[in-house]
Amino acid sequence: MNNKEGNNKRGGARPAGSRPNSNKPKPAMQKRAQGPKKVKPTAKIEEANKVVKKPNQVAKRLKEKDEIRLNKYISNSGVCSRRDADIYIQSGNVKVNGVPVTEMGYLVKPTDVVNFDGKVLTPEKKVYILLNKPKNFTTALDEGQEYRNVLELVKGSTTAKIGPIGRMDKNTTGLLLFTNDTDMIRKFTLPNQKSSKIYQVSLDKNLKFEDLEKINKGLVIDGHRVFVEDVSYIENEPKSEVGLKLRSANVKVVRSIFEQFSYDVLRIDRVSFAGLTKKNLPRGNWRLLTDQEIINLKNV
């Protein structure tokens, strides 16, 4: 037996990489106490937890939602349009809680007191009323006692201070829109508006075809170009009954178009206003616009 083998038997040095030969049993591993399994929250749960953990942010959003721009607050009060309100703000004629405000885009809280040109404002809810106007009522306030004002026809419809969009004389009938939305009133009285109105016009004599063609091409009245979208004879009616489609809400323009060609206008009836019609609205009656109709008017 050589020295190398003897050293191995005596527990001496072992060759590198060899394992000790132990017959002793290994101690049993203790089992860990098993609790409920942890489940990783889903993205939706995590998002919900964020909302629960930050209630102040939710309250802040609700508060900001109640705030509106100062010019809109003034417009909602019915005193002027937003554009005119900006002029008043810049000139220093508007105070919020007693302090003059000239900052454009200033946000007003529901609890703020707004003073406009020396008067405290109370914003009104926007109201939109459609009337089928009869004869012998006028939008003018200076025609004496002979003709009654159109506001009598919508009396009791609202407590808001409303006014008609555009003018109508005593002989003109048909659709007339009332509102306290000064921005909308201004929108539909601008010369470059895009909404169409349709009128049925009764003339003192038949409209010549050549005159109809000239009107269709447009014409100049008092130095202003008038664009006519369509003019045509009304089916199954005499040729003195004419349909006219144009964007102007000014009934005087309708009358002037035919007077340019030496026709006397006997009657004008507005049958459509910016998509609104007289359907289910008898002469002399009014109705509130639906939410969808209001949206449509604001988008034309």
Automatic annotation (TrEMBL):
Record domain RNA-binding S4: where: 68-129
One Gene Ontology term from the biological process aspect of the record: enzyme-directed rRNA pseudouridine synthesis
Swiss-Prot/TrEMBL keywords: Isomerase, RNA-binding
EC number assigned by the record: 5.4.99.21
One GO MF term attached to the UniProt entry: 23S rRNA pseudouridine(2604) synthase activity
Major enzyme class: isomerase
Entry's family note: Belongs to the pseudouridine synthase RsuA family.
Protein name: Ribosomal large subunit pseudouridine synthase F
Species name: Flavobacterium succinicans
Higher taxonomy: Bacteria, Pseudomonadati, Bacteroidota, Flavobacteriia, Flavobacteriales
Gene from which this protein is expressed: rluF_2
